[in-house]
Design a protein that fits this description.
The chain is of the alpha/beta class. It has a single domain, classed as Uracil-DNA glycosylase-like domain (Uracil-DNA Glycosylase, subunit E, 3-Layer(aba) Sandwich). A four-stranded parallel sheet has the order 3-2-5-6. Strands 1-4 form a two-stranded antiparallel ribbon.
Amino acid sequence: MASWVEDFVGALAEVQLPNVFNPYADVCPSHDLPGAPTVRRNNLAKVLDRQLVMGTDTIWVGRDLGYRGARRTGLALTDERHLPEMASALGVDGIEKSTATSLDERTASITWGVLRRLPSVPVLWNAFPLHPHGPGDQQSNRQHTLKERAAALWSLEALVMKFQPRDIVAIGNDASIALTAMGLSHTKVRHPSYGGQAQFIDQMEQLYEISSLTEKQLRLI
């Protein structure tokens, strides 16, 4: 019998929309290794399985997947450079790279600059858990539409029902709008992209009562 996580990841892999890359089902002809969607499904399943065992009680919600980050890893707010850090933080083996090339994502780097200072990693998700891209240009980012969000919002609802989080953090306006529409209480912070790095870090430091980074440390993120 399939587990809840297997059913969840399997259902996510079935979502197909125009100009949207589903990393759990689709293959990127430019960068993916053979079997890449399976690797990304396994990455997500291993992380969620572990966090259920750990009793993770916080969810961070971003906007959608980016072409330099979670499109390639299958893990929200996480690029390839931070896959080993995710595996180490959760004590999980088998978190693998699914691409022949490597890219860093600024949002992931800033987010992990905060995550590594916390005692545990929250469940990381997005208001839209797939990668919306421009027509004919998979290596681009665009904001997802309300129709697209509606087609996959069940995934966020399912995670909230399963994990029963004590705290939910919305990273940016789109996440906050989605959570408000769902009737879910949450704390909103600035999204780190488009010049929001300093405010995002400051708000997270206040929220989690962690010491501020020095200017030298900030430059290393």
